[in-house]
Amino acid sequence: MYISEKEIEIRYAETDQMGVVYHANYVIWLEVGRSQLIQDLGFSVRDMEEAGYVSPVMNVNISYKASLRYGEPAIVKTWIKSQDKLRTVYGYEICHEDGVVAATATTEHILVRKDNFRPISLKKVNEDWYNKYLEIAEVQ
């Protein structure tokens, strides 16, 4: 299983009055991690969108385990949990610098045509990308 890592510098604006990272910021970091994984694999979200396709989030699930605070780096680990005909599920861990898990998450995506939002298989749009996801998926 391939795992991509991206370090996030926690900004003061991402914290709440208690100095703890506000929960909604984790969703943004999931996108950062997902984009890093795609880039690490040699693919481009921008190229996919320019070709007329987008990949909306269908589901987000986050479990918060330990607080992150301003001034600490957060490490976003991202992998492909599963890939089927139409759906990609990404897995995530957001960790403290010392490896302590602050949150675990999954996001579920489909690929759709930008002009009409009709689902289409990643295999039909980019077979190399689809095959790479199958190859590295946690669940085969």
TrEMBL record:
The keyword Chloroplast does not apply. GO terms for molecular function: fatty acyl-CoA hydrolase activity. SUPFAM superfamilies: Thioesterase/thiol ester dehydrase-isomerase (SSF54637). It comes from the Bacteria. InterPro entries: 4-hydroxybenzoyl-CoA_TE (IPR050563), HotDog_dom_sf (IPR029069), YbgC/YbaW (IPR006684). It holds the Pfam family 4HBT_2. Keywords: Hydrolase. Belongs to the 4-hydroxybenzoyl-CoA thioesterase family. This is Acyl-CoA thioester hydrolase. It comes from Kurthia zopfii. The lineage of its organism: Bacteria, Bacillati, Bacillota, Bacilli, Bacillales.
